[in-house]
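Q: Can someone sanity-check these two? First one:
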Amino acid sequence: QVQLVESGGGLVQAGGSLRLSCAASGLTFTNYAMAWFRQAPGKEREFVAAINWSGAMTYYADSVKGRFTISRDNAKNTVSLQMNSLKPEDTAVYYCAARYKTAAQDMGSTSSDYWGQGTQVTVSS
C-alpha cells in the first residue's frame, strides 16, 4: 500500500523555524510530483508548496513565498518543507500529498492521488 508519513511538526515561537519531512513508500517516487498543504481550524485546506519529479521545479503559495522551501531526496523517497520566519497564521495541520506525473504549478488546482495523515504546526505569538 502507498503510505505518506509526515514528521517534524511542533510548537515554535513567531519568527522561528521548523522543518517538516514526509517519507513515501509503496510507489515509484520519481513518477510523482509532491506537495504540502495545510488546514487551520475552521478553514479550508490550503495549498502551500509543490515540487516536480526531479526537484528542478518548485511552486509556492504567495503567503509562504520567500519563507518556505520545498525539496526532495529521491534516493531516500522523502520530501521536506523548511519553514522560516514563521507567523501565527502559519498554524495548521500540514499534509504531504502526491500526484502522478504532474507539474509543480498544477498541484494546487488538481486532486492529489495520495495523502499523509498530517502533522501539527503551532506558532505562538
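And here is the second, same format, sequence then C-alpha cells:
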Amino acid sequence: QLKLVESGGGLVQPGGSLRLSCAASGVALDHYGVGWFRQAPGKEREPISCISSSGASTNYADSVKGRFTMSRDNAKNEVYLQMNSLKPEDTAVYYCTADVPYNSIATRRFWGQGTQVTVSS
C-alpha cells in the first residue's frame, strides 16, 4: 500500500523559492518513475515534472523549465521539487505521483494529498 505525502508548500513572494518534498511509505519507489502535477484555481491539473526510477532522466513542462528542478533520494524514499524564481501563476496545489505497474500492460498512478503553494506579494 503505497502512500505519498507532500510537504514544503506555503506562501512565498514572487521571485522566491520553495522546496517541496514527497515522502513515500509502504512501498519503495526505487523501481518507479515519479512526477509532480499541479492544479491552479480554475484550471485543469497539469503535469510539471517527471523523473526516472534511477534519477538519470528528467522532463519538465515548458511553463517551469529552467526554474524548477526535480530530484530523488531513493535511500530516503523521497522525491523533491526545487522551485526557483516563482511567479504568481505558479500558485497551485502541487501533487506527487508514482507510477507502479499493475500488470504487463497497465500502470497505476498513485497520488499524494497535495500541498498548497501560493506566490503573492
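A (reply): Looked at the second one. The mean pLDDT is 95. The first strand starts at residue 3 and ends at 7.
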